[in-house]
Amino acid sequence: MRGAPAQSSPASAPARSGGRSRRLVRFALMIVTVVLIVDAIVGENGVLALLQARRQFAAVERALQQSREDNTTLRETARRLREDAGTIEAVARRDLNLIKPGEKVFIVKAAPPRP
């Protein structure tokens, strides 16, 4: 039977469907992998969220450091106002427009513009 067409044997049919199922499994695994990678990058707890959280942490840390420096300055100012007579006098002169007995105050006004 040389010239007779070759008939497919029952063993070759499962081999073809086995190759197709392997491709489907690979394709499904590839899709799952891509979805997992995308979720790891942009998901709720992904890399981008982590970077954003780090930026926020750094900003809060800088604000905290600035607040600590402001507190130190305010404590020093409060200490000087409680203990230093010169500071108390300077504040009274500046903020309350007070003068010492015997001092004279001169008020200088700007001259009106000439027509």
TL;DR?
With 115 residues, the protein is an all-alpha fold. The chain has a domain at 18-96. It has helices at residues 12-42, 47-83, 85-96.
Question: Can you give a write-up of this model?
Answer:
The chain starts with 11 loop residues before the first helix and ends in a 19-residue tail after the last helix. With 115 residues, the protein is an all-alpha fold. The radius of gyration is 42 Å and the shape is rod-shaped. The mean pLDDT is 84. The chain has helices at residues 12-42, 47-83, 85-96. It has a domain at 18-96. The protein is 70% helix and 0% strand. The chain contains three helices and no strands.
Strand and helix layout:
Layout: H1 12-42, H2 47-83, H3 85-96
Helix fraction, binned, reads: 55-70%
CA distance, first residue to last residue? 128 Å
Shape: rod-shaped
What is the number of helices?
3
Low-confidence stretches: none
Structural class: mainly alpha
- State which percent range the strand residues make up: under 5%
Largest sheet: none
What's the mean pLDDT score?
Answer: 84
Number of strands: 0
Instruction: Give the SSE order as H and E letters.
Output: HHH
Radius of gyration: 42 Å
What labels would you give this structure?
115 residues; mainly alpha; 3 helices; 0% strand
